[in-house]
Design goal:
Low-confidence stretches: none
CATH topology of the largest domain: UDP-N-acetylmuramoyl-L-alanine:D-glutamate ligase
CATH architecture of the largest domain: 3-Layer(aba) Sandwich
CATH class of the largest domain: Alpha Beta
Mean pLDDT: 96
Number of domains: 2
């Protein structure tokens, strides 16, 4: 089974999204342990041989604990050593499997609490096969004792050495060796090889890639894993602006609500500062929606070419520009939007373009930046962007194909809104989001989504990451609002549930 190397973050996202689809971490651990044992019995004689498994306190250790049962069933003499005290086991599934081994009399299970205890462990020296289940992926710093001594003892042994997922001591992202690393004869990569192994091939030995039951859907369905990068604790020394400064350019002489909803959604998603730049007739109305929004007047009744300089000046002090909510479709506004977008792309500014902003760039030859730009059309706006009828709007296959084509045409990430959202990248990759409720057809929910995308972009994520996470957050918040109010929700109900999405997952 050949698979491309995967990053640590993408692997964590996959595991969480698999769990969201019902494939629990416990199931993955059982599958991993069985596959580890299968590879070992296939590549080495195990019957009547001494197999020693050294286990850390996390998930990798749990994989080793599961493998112990299958190896014993295959006729091996199995001894398992936990590197640390069981009270410090950090993974509940690992703890459950440790307790299982403690109930069995045919498998030795002992803990090694100190460097001295590891050095005194005769089984490591006597083993025919050594299994490294010490660290796995995610290592970022030097191995601590007794793990470091365990790695050195493994390397001194003449046993055949197997590492689970990645040799312990190797940074799964960079391939850097943290103090010392197991020099394995075989590495059993779970689901896919970790990208750091491409820079540490001399430690991996022969690599065996095994399936652990992560469904294909987990790779293309948005889920809690996609919001994980945006839900980390903030450092104590964080300053105002570290988590995003957003400029919303929207509104017209008629529309005031759309840019306000976008701005309030961005704030509730976690942006530090949100400014709204709007035409003079609606400035007072937008200010009245929330004292948290900093509102500046364009000095004109609509966005026009003469306003471009002011927008660019304000944009230079912000991380992201959300362009389009309530702008209107006056021809002067369209020309101003085109100029703005071209200038912002040239300045490498992150942009979310929605609603009337999409209509302004439709049928143009403009080229955006897929690392920084997100277009958020519904089906009708997608047809406007592509300047043609696009066929069956209810066919998911067609929606994916057309969204990818649009992403390629504009060289931008596209978040196609609908009963099932489709997020696409110009290179052809995509994800779908099934979260949401039919009640979200109410006006303003698209403006909320734009604000969520902008806030996540403001945390220095790629456009693709931000769009995927935003679709999941918006849909989840809408479902929560529906649970509270049924078909009578309004856009602000969705905004007030954004924080609950982060709390839930």
């Amino acid at each position: 089974m050949e698979k491309e190397p995967i990053t640590t973050e993408d692997m964590r996202i996959l595991e969480l999204n698999a769990e969201y689809l019902g494939v629990t971490h416990s199931m993955l651990m059982q599958n991993a342990g069985r596959e580890v044992a299968r590879v070992i019995t296939k590549t080495s004689k195990t019957r009547d041989k001494l197999v020693v498994i050294l286990c850390g306190l996390g998930g990798n250790g749990g994989d080793g604990l599961v493998a112990a049962r299958y190896l014993e069933e295959a006729g091996a003499h199995v001894e398992v050593f936990l590197l640390g005290h069981e009270k410090n086991i950090t993974n509940k599934d690992t703890l459950e499997n440790w307790e299982v081994l403690n109930n069995l009399h045919d498998i030795t299970s002992l803990d090694l609490l100190t460097e001295t205890a590891v050095k005194s462990c005769k089984a490591i020296e006597q083993a025919d096969i050594l299994v490294d289940a010490v660290m796995g992926f995610g290592l970022r710093s030097k191995l601590r004792e007794p793990l470091l001594t365990a790695v050195k003892m493994i390397n001194k042994s003449s046993a055949t050495k197997y590492s689970i997922d990645i040799p312990s001591g190797i940074d799964s992202e960079s391939g850097k060796v943290h103090g010392a690393a197991v020099k394995a004869d075989h590495t059993i990569a779970l689901h896919a090889p970790k990208i750091g192994m491409t820079n540490a091939t001399e430690f991996a030995g022969k690599v065996h890639i095994v399936s652990i039951g992560i469904p294909n859907e987990a790779a293309y369905t948005s889920g809690p894993g996609d919001i994980r990068p945006f839900d980390q604790p903030r450092a104590l020394h964080s300053r105002k602006g570290d988590f995003g400064k957003i400029l919303v350019v929207g509104g017209s002489d008629v529309y005031s609500g759309a840019p306000a909803l976008t701005g309030m959604a961005a704030l509730r998603t976690g942006a530090d500062l949100v400014s709204v730049l709007a035409p003079e007739p609606v400035v007072s109305a937008i200010r009245s929606y929330s004292p948290n929004l900093m509102v500046t007047s364009l000095g004109t009744n609509i966005l026009i070419s003469e306003s471009v300089g002011l927008v660019l000046d304000l944009a230079s002090n912000n991380d992201v520009v959300a362009l389009g909510p309530g702008l209107g479709i006056d021809q002067q506004t369209k020309l101003a939007v085109m100029t703005l977008v071209e200038r912002l792309v040239k300045k490498k500014k992150s942009i979310v373009i929605d609603a009337d902003g999409l209509k302004a760039i439709a049928s143009s030859e403009i080229t955006l930046d897929p690392e920084r730009c997100v277009l958020t059309p519904h089906w009708g706006e997608l047809e406007i962007l592509m300047d043609q009828e696009l066929g069956d709007r209810y066919s998911l296959h067609n929606r994916v194909d057309q969204a990818i084509t649009c992403a390629s045409k504009y060289n931008s990430v596209v978040l196609l809104k609908g009963p099932v959202d489709v997020i696409t990248h110009p290179v052809g990759k995509f994800k779908i989001n099934r979260e949401g409720a039919p009640a979200m057809t109410v006006g303003g929910t698209g403006d909320v989504l734009t604000g969520i995308v902008a806030a996540l972009l403001g945390q220095h994520a790629s456009a693709y990451q931000a769009a995927i996470a935003a679709a999941f957050i918006s849909g989840n918040a809408g479902e929560m609002a529906f649970d509270q109010r049924g078909d009578h929700i309004v856009a602000t109900d969705c905004i007030e549930n954004i924080h609950r999405v982060f709390d839930k997952w």
